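Chapter summary example.
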Amino acid sequence: MSLLTDLINLNLSDCTNKIIAEYIWIGGSGMDLRSKARTLSGPVADPSKLPKWNYDGSSTGQAPGEDSEVILYPQAIFRDPFRRGNNILVMCDAYTPAGEPIPTNKRCNAAKIFSHPDVAAEEPWYGIEQEYTLLQKDVKWPIGWPLGGYPGPQGPYYCGVGVDKAYGRDIVDSHYKACLYAGINISGINGEVMPGQWEFQVGPSIGISAGDELWVARYILERITEIAGVVLSFDPKPIQGDWNGAGAHTNYSTKSMRNDGGYEVIKKAIEKLGLRHKEHIAAYGEGNERRLTGRHETADINTFLWGVANRGASIRVGRDTEKAGKGYFEDRRPASNMDPYVVTSMIAETTILWKP
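The structure predicted for these 356 residues follows.
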């Protein structure tokens, strides 16, 4: 095994200028990440300088077998924390050979919204709190939980320390450092209310970069759990009963909200979000009705309400924002399995472009 480790850790720059680029894309379910690697003649820093590539869409549920070719367009580059050196991770989106975005390509429409002059002028910032659950491989039960049984009730696990409270910290810390190495704007981690559940935060990130960074952070986490022999779950309610679900709370502000008088802009934006509550809920993740029950720090899925420091609301405004009269708010509705391209662009569209 030591020879295998030595080979994995080979420093290619000692003998060649060639690099390895790992192309990443989203598969047919909208949550399954796929990737494959190719050799490039030398380092590349600009995604527009990378070659397009293709894959078999009939094997990912994204094209019929008789016309299976799907084209990958490189969109964002990150340093590769697994191969290191000059090797890179490349976030891509997917198109038909004719250049049309395939139905599961949600990035293309998001990029159009973020490039709208009115949206670009507002410089929308996002901070996404990605919750997830680590499961034992063969039984799909949270790590640290007794097989077929339950740990003690919730209470000691949130930000907990100790072998009987924090399960999987080595994975979490590995992911944290790997994201920083990759150039992802990861801003923190913490243990969550349910044991075996954790959270990382990405942001503040501007516009389309929030989606790129969250997807690549998810990819890195998938790779690390693969190495650790643990299953990664983004299910919004992995364990039924008196256990917290998993969300992807999305913090948001525009330039107008961050400037003096921004609190009034925030209130008007929240009013718009309330008017489109059903449309947002429909786009905020599969199975969210199991999580948004009005219990466990959520608002009921059919009810829209907002409040200051209220974690049982659809939208929470922080005390600091209220006091300063400007700042940001948190949309607590998105599920852990939401598509960040969809959620971030929809919030911008509703609050900036949509006219009631």
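To summarize the output: The two ends are 63 Å apart (CA to CA).
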